[in-house]
Amino acid sequence: MSVLIETSLGKIAIDLFTDECPITTKNFLKHCKMKYPTGKGTGGDSIYKFLYGDQSRFFDNEIHQKLKHSKRGAVAMASAGKNLNASQFYITLRDNLDYLDGKHTVFGEVAEDEENILKAINEAYVDDKGRPFKNIRIKHTHINKRSKSHSDGSDKLTIDTENKGKNMAPARKVRNHDYCFHRRHQDDKHGRR
């Protein structure tokens, strides 16, 4: 399954690792369908909070040894700590960001970036906190159901209701960004290489 993300700079196609990270990808896909985030700067909530209440604002990591931050375009959860995933995610802009491995759930990868959007994001002028001077926004998302993901052959997106929030961490405030593009370091005060 993949998602086409329309940003204020152009389009990026992301392939999702639905078999390896089912909880994370369901959360991401439901947020895409709901047109979430709202951009209110509240840090975001997982879809499981809407189903099971405040105790399910966060969900557990789904970290796998083979899914790493080894190349540009890895898509991962921007968690507030171990098992504190909500709605924030990032896309890596460099290769070999191994210091992130084992800490963040990698749940997808950029499959198409024909307009060099990742390069444009990486070259954006930023303030001293790493935020772009000109906002880079997600305008719209499109879910592409390339493969049949259910045993009955349907493409329906469903949520596992058997867990009912059992593996969810208690609510805690996280960063004020709805999404971010992680930058390992900046070479100068404007983030230019």
Automatic annotation (TrEMBL):
Domain of life, per lineage: Eukaryota
Pfam families in the cross-refs: Pro_isomerase (PF00160)
The entry's keywords: Isomerase, Nucleus, RNA-binding, Rotamase
Record domain PPIase cyclophilin-type: where: 6-143
EC number: 5.2.1.8
Region (Disordered): 140-193
Recorded catalytic activity of this chain's protein: [protein]-peptidylproline (omega=180) = [protein]-peptidylproline (omega=0)
Compartment(s) where it occurs, according to its Swiss-Prot or TrEMBL record: Nucleus
Biased composition (Basic and acidic residues): 149-165, 176-193
Main location: nucleus
Gene Ontology cellular component annotations, sorted alphabetically: nucleus
GO MF annotation: an example: RNA binding
InterPro entries, per database record: CRIP, Cyclophilin-like_dom_sf, Cyclophilin-type_PPIase_dom
Its job: PPIases accelerate the folding of proteins. It catalyzes the cis-trans isomerization of proline imidic peptide bonds in oligopeptides.
Family in the record: Belongs to the cyclophilin-type PPIase family.
Name the UniProt record assigns to this protein: Peptidyl-prolyl cis-trans isomerase
Organism: Coptis chinensis
